[in-house]
Amino acid sequence: MSASSLKSFSIPSFKLPAFVSSIGNKLPQWPHAVALTAALNAVVKMKLLPEDSLERLEGRRFLVDVLDTGGRASFTFRDGLFRPLFYLPETPDLAFSANLSAFLQLMARQEDPDTLFFNRELSIEGDTELGLVVKNMLDAVEWPELPKLPKLSNILSFRT
Amino acid sequence: MQPQKIPELVCPAGSLPALKAAVDNGADTVYIGYRNDTNARNFAGLNFDQKAMVEGIRYAHTHGKHVLMAINTFPQPGREADWHQAVDGAADLGVDAVILADIGLLDYASTRHPDLRLHLSVQGSATSYEAVNFAHREFGARRAVLPRVLTLAQVELVINNTPVEIEVFGFGSLCVMNEGRCWLSSYATGESPNTVGACSPAKYVKWEKSPGQMSTRLNGILIDRCADNEAAGYPTLCKGRFEVNGETYYALEEPTSLNVIEILPEIARIGVSAIKVEGRQRSPTYVAQVTRTLRAALDALASDSEHYHVQPAWQADLARVSEGNQATLGAYNRPWR
Per the database record, which ranges form the SCP2 domain (chain A) (predicted)? Predict the structure, then answer.
């Protein structure tokens, strides 16, 4: 396996079996929100999100619904930080729903959100303009370059 | 074998990562716009602030690529100064050209910035060589982007009768293409691309899910309803389904993407100077995917035009990102005129 084939690793489209969500949605949901807000706050602290877009999130309630795991995370943004909500709002200001693979593909910038929307793999409900702000804010993030991995082929060549 | 001269590849960017994706994947030129209504892609949270513009232009120029600034809406009465400021700002930033639609603004730019290269926007709706030559004669326009309503033969006729470089669309979402003159969005919302810089502004769009279907509303008006397995399009009136004489269907335009990859040799042969990719509203991922594919096709054409053939992988990659899951050659191969 060469380094280039590592680089071209892609997340396949998949859907978890139905029993996963039937178990998942019986589990407490707040740990998802805690994990997600911690990740978002790390990005905020790195100053990767534009201030003017963040201002527009103030006090709004968000819901991320991972359909095939049955996991839901709800959170808000207040005073410069994302904060988990420990209840699921009945009418969030903005809700994204998709299967786990679509969310992973989005985060890895492997798929375009509009493509997923056209193909009905991603749904957006609530305040559409707020949704566009969030989408464009995440698109504008310049992720710091990850440290280069050692070439796997070099490591494997030691086997001989 | 004569090396084939190939058109310049002009790609969209609504953010700095998208601009870098375009440059890194083989664009010759990237077009961008301000975060205001001088830009026909004035969507919430999209586009470049001053800092991102400076960095984007530096990045492109360092890599030997060009940057165009789209100031492609029509100045609103009493607010002409905002559009003038956009043109002055673009000149100060050192962009390689500005893309303008409004005649008054072309006049301002040519008078105030005689060295600034001017491109006539598709929103300027110049479909004949007379219109293109007028922009050249009066304002010194060096390039014109043709509306997506002409057949290939008509494009060739324009090229053969003008000194102005001709740019055509090569890939991206299609609409009713009454370019520069469409008021459908205003009919439903009071706002449209030419006035506020956005078609179907997001604040008027609502998607409602119910078991088995999704409804799309624009300012409260139901414009489409999709079953769960049906592809969706952008929430514009022209792509809505309406009941006409008892039948419900896409009465104006079906969600469709343009894709000219099959006719690239013809486009190059007739002397098109540049092909443009639509989609500043889309993510860096889309820009990378489409730019990479068109670059591969253009390079294949440049290296051996006689044996150019469309790779199935190119079509598959482009079909994947297309709106409406169907691609057409648009007006280029239309038998009627």
Answer: 51-139
Chain B interface with A: residues with Cβ < 8 Å? 14-18, 43-46, 49, 52, 201-203, 205-209, 214, 226, 228-233, 255, 281-286, 289, 320-325
* pLDDT tens, residue by residue, B232-265: 889 999 999 999 999 999 999 888 889 999 999 9
Look at the domain B8-174+256-328 and name its fold: TIM Barrel (3.20.20)
Query: Cα A30 to chain center, whole Å?
Result: 16
Residue A133, min C-alpha distance to chain B (Å): 5
**How does residue B216 score in pLDDT terms, banded at 50, 70 and 90?**
very high
Task: Note whether residue A149 is domain-resident.
Answer: no
Assigned domain for A3 exists? no
| Residue B32 binned pLDDT confidence (cut-offs 50, 70, 90) | very high
Domain span including residue A28: 17-140
Alpha-carbon distance of B229 to B211, in angstroms, equals 12
Domain total in chain A? 1
Cα dihedral A86, A92, A93, A95, rounded to 10, equals: 100
- Residue A159 reports pLDDT greater than 70: no
B323 closest CB neighbour out of A52, A111, A118: A118
Q: What CATH number did the domain enclosing A110 receive? A: 3.30.1050.10
pTM: 0.91
Q: Is residue A150 in a domain?
A: no
pLDDT digits (tens, 9 = 90+) for A89-108: 889 999 999 999 999 999 88
Domain boundaries, chain B: 8-174+256-328, 184-249
Residue by residue, DSSP assigns A77-109 as EETTEEEE-SS--SS-SEEEEE-HHHHHHHHTT
